[in-house]
Task: inverse folding
């Protein structure tokens, strides 16, 4: 069992000290215990930086946990108060919810002056410490106002400028916060270098508002003409940027571009250049230059070169266009394709054996020609290029061919020879001929490189002196040598024989023998016979030609002659004394048909009798009753009988004198008008066939066409029977001795006597008839009754059928 310690003073004092320390510790731990039970005040949510648009509402949050102290808001460090209404700040209000610990600051509307730093604070109490939230920045956005006096350009639209003259455009954005941003656009694209834009900002005094100004500096050019320049003002508070636009009108010099109508130009082509130009003002003046030389002539948008030549290759053609602002040009270099051509003709070369030589082919062409070399001994290309280098030796001497080719053109080639120097070689024609007494040339061909220094002719071991009167020596160069000719004048028999031709040069000599022979000439007799025979042959040919021509002139085509006769008959309608109206006969069974051939004489038999031949042509005769009696006025010069009275002799049997037909007398085979009333009375009645001009019974003449006197029928004399010719005569008269035809008396001019009216008193009746019947007939036709009333005119006209006459059948006078 444990023994209890004894009680003492010291133990008592120790117990008192222990109790006091326990009391102090309890006092110190109680607040901690109290905090642990109730909690310490703190921020659950602090305000953050906020942005608000001018005129809108904004709330700054502040949430406190276990709040003990008093809550207030500060603006830029200035306390706004602890009341919820925040006296003095009518737009400010503190929204409080103690249960949730919410103490938010509410501002409505937000103004520019509200842009500041705000803080939520909680005061200390009952040992609580003072609380301060983080500073929250309230940024107020104030956009520029979309008004013409706030955002504007300093230039009006359209803006007129001149190319090359610098201009400046200024855009004012107005006041804003934060500062507005300005961008420049051309046709809705940013297309300006940075150094061309200068933007400045200016803050308003005692305000956070800032004014923005931007300058656009540029030098106008063609691309700026009619372009839209836009000043775009952007701001965070704007949903859409503010735009200000103007259109720039630029006066600029022409822009020029040349085009050629052909991609590939060949020598000889016609080339057309076209100049396309545009400028403002649009009044343009054109000018063309070739190699900086003005083209003379009218200057338009086109320039033509006819038959372009190779000399134009590489030439520069320029089109210069100007207006009131300035001048511009564009040029194009011409490339003319042409065939190869040797600019210098190649020459032969010679050298000693073993030396190097160069052959050159200087050829011009476009495109550059392809040049190849060939050797006469080889059928292949040995080198390509303008030059050929080789070593002279026996294998390399000879002819070389240089060929130049350009695509699309004919090939050009030249030949040149390479000679190796050495002794000459004479290679003449061994036998040569000449005529005695003539001038003879004896030729000696010498191959020699270099050329021979001396050529000597000898005969019978004697050197021929070229200074002798009968001898001359000529020498001419040939490729690779010379041709030496000995000329002998007035050759004698002693000159024929052997000659020696010797050539010498620095490398040696060579000789050849030539025989000159006499040439046998043709005998003189043979020559004369040949000449005479040629002359005789020529004479015979000439005689044959002359006889053939005469025979051709004597030959006549009967059909052609008859056709010509018809043509003459037809022309008589214009030039005969009587005007005859031609008509085509219709309805007559005696009219010739279209199948009848008037031009054929095949049915005429020269061996047959006249009557038999006449019967063959009966179908060409006309019936006495088929046609009417058109009467025509006779023609007298250029007048008809109706407007002229002809003098008549007193003797009615004497015909009047012949009157010339003036210009109408064309000697066409027609007789001038003569009064044949004495000779043209109808014969007494004779009983003829149906084709007679007299009636078969009464003997009275019919006023119809008598086929015996028809110009289309033929010779009227042959149509009258033989028995009637003697009784009545050709002209129908009974006068004349022994029944022979009476010959008309000479003209009245030779007989003398007084003149009287042509119709022996009946002229008045004729004139009356002509005047009364001019509507019934062409060319002065007279009606039938009046003609019958006139005894003297009853038988002076051949009557044409009243119906239409067929083409080719004519009537005329005799």
Result:
């Amino acid at each position: 069992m444990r023994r209890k310690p004894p009680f003492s003073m010291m133990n008592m004092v120790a117990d008192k000290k222990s109790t006091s320390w326990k009391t102090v510790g309890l006092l110190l731990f109680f607040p901690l215990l109290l905090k642990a039970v109730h909690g310490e005040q703190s921020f659950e949510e602090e305000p953050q930086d906020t942005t608000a648009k001018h005129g809108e509402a904004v709330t700054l949050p502040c949430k406190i946990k276990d709040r003990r102290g008093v809550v207030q808001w500060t603006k830029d460090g200035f306390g706004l108060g602890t009341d919820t209404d925040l006296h003095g700040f009518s737009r400010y209000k503190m929204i409080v919810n103690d249960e949730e610990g919410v103490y938010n600051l509410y501002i409505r509307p937000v103004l520019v002056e509200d842009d500041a730093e705000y803080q939520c604070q909680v005061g200390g109490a009952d040992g609580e410490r003072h609380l301060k939230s983080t500073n929250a920045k309230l940024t107020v956005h104030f956009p520029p106002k979309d008004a013409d006096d706030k955002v504007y350009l300093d230039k009006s639209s359209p803006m007129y400028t001149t190319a090359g003259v610098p201009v400046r455009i200024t855009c004012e954005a107005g006041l804003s916060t934060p500062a507005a941003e300005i961008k420049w656009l051309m046709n809705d694209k940013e297309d300006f270098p940075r150094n061309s834009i200068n933007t400045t900002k200016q803050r308003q005094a005692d305000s956070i508002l800032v004014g923005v100004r931007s300058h656009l500096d540029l030098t106008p050019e063609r691309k700026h003409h009619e372009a839209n320049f836009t000043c775009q003002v952007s701001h965070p508070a704007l949903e859409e940027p503010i735009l200000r636009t103007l259109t720039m009108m630029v006066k600029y010099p022409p822009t020029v571009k040349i085009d050629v109508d052909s991609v590939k130009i060949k020598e000889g082509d016609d080339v057309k250049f076209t100049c396309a130009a545009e400028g403002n003002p649009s009044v343009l003046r054109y000018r063309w230059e070739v190699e900086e030389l003005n083209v003379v002539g009218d200057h338009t948008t086109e320039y033509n070169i006819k038959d372009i030549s190779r000399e134009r290759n590489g030439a520069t053609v320029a089109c210069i266009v100007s207006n009131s602002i300035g001048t511009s040009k564009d040029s194009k270099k011409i490339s003319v394709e042409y065939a190869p051509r040797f600019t210098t003709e190649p020459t032969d070369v010679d050298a000693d054996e073993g030396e190097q030589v160069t052959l050159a082919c200087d050829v011009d062409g476009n495109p550059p020609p392809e040049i190849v070399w060939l050797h006469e001994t080889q059928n292949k290309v040995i080198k390509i290029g303008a030059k050929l280098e080789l070593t002279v030796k026996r294998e390399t001497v000879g002819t070389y061919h240089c060929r130049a080719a350009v695509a699309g053109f004919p090939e050009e080639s030249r030949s040149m020879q390479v000679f190796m120097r050495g002794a000459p070689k004479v290679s003449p024609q061994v036998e040569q001929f000449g005529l005695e007494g003539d001038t003879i040339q004896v030729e000696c061909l010498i191959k020699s490189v270099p050329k021979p220094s001396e050529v000597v002719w000898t005969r019978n071991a004697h050197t021929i002196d070229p200074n002798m009167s009968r001898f001359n020596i000529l020498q001419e160069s040939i490729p690779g040598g010379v041709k030496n000719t000995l000329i002998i004048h007035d050759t004698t028999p002693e000159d024929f024989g052997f000659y020696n031709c010797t050539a010498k040069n620095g490398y040696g000599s060579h000789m050849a023998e030539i025989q000159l022979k006499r040439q046998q000439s043709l005998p003189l007799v043979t020559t004369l016979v040949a000449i005479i025979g040629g002359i005789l042959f020529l004479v015979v040919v000439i005689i044959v030609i002359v006889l053939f021509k005469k025979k051709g002139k004597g030959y006549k085509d009967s059909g052609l002659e008859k056709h010509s006769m018809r043509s003459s008959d037809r022309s008589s309608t214009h030039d005969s004394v009587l005007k005859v109206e031609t008509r085509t006969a219709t309805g007559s069974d005696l009219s010739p048909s279209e199948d009848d051939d008037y031009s054929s004489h095949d049915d005429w038999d020269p061996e047959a009798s006249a009557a038999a031949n006449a019967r063959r042509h009966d179908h060409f005769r006309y019936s006495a009753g088929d046609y009417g009696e058109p009467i025509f006025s006779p023609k007298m010069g250029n007048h008809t009988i109706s407007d002229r009275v002809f003098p008549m002799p007193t003797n009615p049997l004497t015909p009047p004198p012949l009157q010339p037909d003036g210009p109408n007398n064309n000697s066409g085979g027609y007789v001038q008008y003569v009064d044949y009333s004495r000779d043209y009375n109808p014969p007494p009645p004779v009983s003829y066939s149906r084709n007679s001009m007299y009636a078969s019974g009464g003997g009275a003449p019919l006023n119809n066409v008598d086929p015996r006197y028809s110009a289309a029928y033929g010779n009227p004399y042959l149509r009258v029977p033989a028995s009637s010719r003697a009784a009545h005569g050709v002209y129908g008269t009974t006068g004349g001795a022994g029944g022979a035809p009476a010959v008309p008396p000479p003209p009245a001019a030779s007989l003398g006597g007084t003149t009287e009216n042509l119709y022996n008193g009946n002229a008045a009746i004729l004139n009356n008839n002509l005047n009364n019947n001019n509507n019934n007939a062409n060319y002065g036709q007279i009606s039938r009754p009046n003609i019958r009333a006139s005894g003297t005119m009853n038988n002076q006209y051949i009557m044409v059928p009243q119906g239409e006459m067929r083409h080719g059948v004519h009537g005329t006078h005799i």
